[in-house]
Amino acid sequence: MVFLTAVLAAPPVDTSHSADVDQTGAEALVSQEPTGSAYTLALTRLDDRVAAVEAATVTLVGHPLVDTTKVASRTLFRPDLVDATAAPVTSGLTAEQLPDRVQGARQQVASGDVAEATRVVEGVETDVLLVALDLGDQSAQNAAMTRLLVSADPQVALLDAAVGATHAAAEVRDVVAAATSAVQARDAAAGITVAAQQIAVTGDEASKAAVAKVEQQARSTDGYTNGAIPLKVLCVVAFAPSQHLRCDAAEALARLNAAYRVDFGHDLKISGSYRTLDEQISTRAAKGTMAAVPGTSNHGWGLAIDLDQANGYRSAQYAWLKANAMTYGWHHPVYMDEGGRGPHEPWHWEFGTSDDSSTGTSVPITVGVPAPTTPPPTSPVPPVVEQPAVAPVEPAPTPSATPTPSSTPTASTEPPAP
Ligand SMILES: [Zn+2]
Predict the structure, then answer these.
(1) Count of CB atoms within 10 A of residue 177's CB?
(2) pLDDT tens-digit profile of 280-298?
(3) Is the whole-model pTM more than 0.70?
(4) Which helix (H) or strand (E) holds 361?
(5) Cis (ω within 30 of 0) for the bond into 343?
(6) How many angstroms separate the alpha carbon of residue 56 from the centre of ligand 1?
(7) Which carries the bigger pLDDT value, residue 415 or residue 297?
């Protein structure tokens, strides 16, 4: 997403990447010859650009607006628990809102104000690119856990290619290509999810067992609250025995580390993983807003690690993880990316979470249960000052054999910082 930041941070009239629009020239023409042939040509070019954005919009909108990949990932392997009321994508700007934006741009192009039309078209292009990138990234994230089981599925390669093409197209502001590849990424992600579900039904016994194991691991912390998971419920990270994570996260991290070690010759150095509520309170006290509100950190679910990492965003390690971690279900939250709203923590990586563009945070992808919701007013996050000095090692909540959705880990709208 680093380059996306660069794309979006570009001055509104900097279209040096774009071969078919010379907006700087068009603006200059306004004060010279507003009715001349050059002016007409600039208008035509702008209109062509609007048409391209419109075509991209059709590509994005010409598919179901409900993010089917997100719904599927919520109900991974549990078609009996499909959440029919799952909310549609609620990013700041959704695909369904794009047509109005495009139409508005077209009207302003037609009004003859080239300078204003230039700015409007630029803005719409950015919006289309944002939606396309959001689709591509979310598809990849939501498929990340499933793909662990179906790495041989040809859709996995298609997903990788489509997400990469989305980003590459955005980098050169090709909105049509970005939209097209984003749709391909979403469809591929849906295919991966279906493949995993089919394995659970028709696969050989070994495959079925693998699916069942992943489901069991993903649900192993159901019934506990953030930061109150007994260590015995979690798993030790094989190459870092002092660290604990949810078992599927620990196993995926071991696979990720094995690939990392091939390229770097040493293990990943982990400085933090599961964090109890007390530890979250201590971290908050020490780091302030750089740390998550206690009770909301993804560390409290055993789904986040911090790396002992030098050079941050500029490090070879960060670049490698950005390119490879998602293959193993790990990713860097978009809001922590360089240029994201922050906090900016290149060392913080998460497993089994999905970027939530509606809140600008990341939340756990729940498996087989409804998606996390905002805590009801009657059960607020415990105030820091009321916490006991030492939390019980193995707190009271004992998950039943079949945890109910109401006892599902609940995501807050507070930024789940490290
Ligand atoms: Zn962290």
Answers:
(1) 19
(2) 999 899 988 778 889 989 9
(3) no
(4) strand 361-364
(5) yes
(6) 37
(7) 297
Task: Compute the distance from residue 397 Cα to the ligand 1 centre, in Å.
Answer: 25
Instruction: Say what the pLDDT of residue 64 is.
Output: 53
Q: How far apart are the C-alpha atoms of 124 and 227, rounded to whole Å?
A: 43
Output the CA 16–ligand 1 centroid distance in Å: 38
Residue 270 Cα to ligand 1 midpoint, Å, equals 10
Query: Within the chain, what is the greatest distance between any pair of CA atoms?
Result: 79
- Report CA(306)–ligand 1 centroid distance (Å): 5
Q: Please give the Cα distance from 206 to 326 (Å, whole number).
A: 24
Strand partners, 330: 351
Q: How far is the CA of 349 from the centre of ligand 1 (A)?
A: 7
Report the C-alpha dihedral over residues 371, 372, 378, 384, rounded to 10 degrees.
Answer: 170
Residue 344, burial from CB neighbour count under 10 angstroms (0-12, 13-18, 19+): middle
Using only the alpha carbons of the chain, give its radius of gyration.
23
CA of 282 to the centre of ligand 1 (A): 14
Higher pLDDT, 388 or 70: 70
Interval between CA 175 and ligand 1 midpoint (Å): 34
For ligand 1, the distance from its centroid to the CA atom of residue 299, given in whole angstroms, is 7
CB 180 within 8 A of CB 187: no
3-class DSSP state of 329: coil
* CA 294 to ligand 1 center in whole angstroms: 13
CA of 295 to the centre of ligand 1 (A): 13
- DSSP H helix total and E strand total for the chain: 12, 8
Show the DSSP H helices in 10-97 as ranges.
Answer: 23-30, 37-61, 68-74
Best CA proximity match to 246, nearest among 336, 344, 137, 367: 367
Which residue type, as a one-letter code, is found at position 325?
A: A
What dihedral angle (degrees, nearest 10) is formed by the CA atoms of 59, 61, 64, 67? 100
Interatomic CA distance for residues 237 and 371, integer angstroms: 27
For ligand 1, the distance from its centroid to the CA atom of residue 234, given in whole angstroms, is 17
Strand, helix or coil at 164?
A: helix
